[in-house]
Request: fold
Amino acid sequence: MRSVSEDPVPATVYFLALPTLALLAGWVTGQEARQAPWKYFFSLLVFATCIPGIFSVSLSVYLFLFQRGGSIFNVNLVTQVLPVLSMILTLAIIRQRVSFAYVPGFHKLSSLMLMLGAIFFLMYLLDRARIIVFVNMPVQYLLLVVAGALLVIHYGFRQLTR
Reply:
C-alpha cells in the first residue's frame, strides 16, 4: 500500500471534488436546498470534508505546538493544507445555498471542533506549566483533573451555544 506522499493524486482529486460537488449541487438545487434529499446530500458533503479537515488542523496544531524543532517548511501540502482549504471552500459554498441549521448533524461537528480546541488548549497549558507529578500523587488523579476540566469546558460551551 502506497502512502499519500508517494501518490498524492487520489487525495488531491478527492479534496478538489468536494467543493466541485458542492458547487454543482448548489447550482442544481436552487431554492430546494433545504428540502429532504438535498439537505442530506449537503450533510454528506459537510462530513466528507470536515472530518479530514478537522483531523488535518488537529495534526498541524499538534506538530507545531508539541514537536520541538518543527518547522513550517516541513508541512505536507496534500495532508495538512489541502484538506483545510477544501473544508473552508466547501463550507463557504454550502453556506451560500443553505443555512447550516438545516444541515443534519452540523452542530455535532461544531461541538467537536470546540472540544478539540479545548483539549489542545488544556494540553498546551499542561505542557507549558511543567507539572511534575510527585510520588504522593498518582497519575490517575491527574487524569481525573483533566477529565473534570474537560467536562466543565463542555458544559460551558453548551451553555454558550444555547
About this structure: The helical segments are 9-29, 36-66, 77-97, 106-129, 139-160. The chain has a mean pLDDT of 84. Residues 9-100 form one domain.
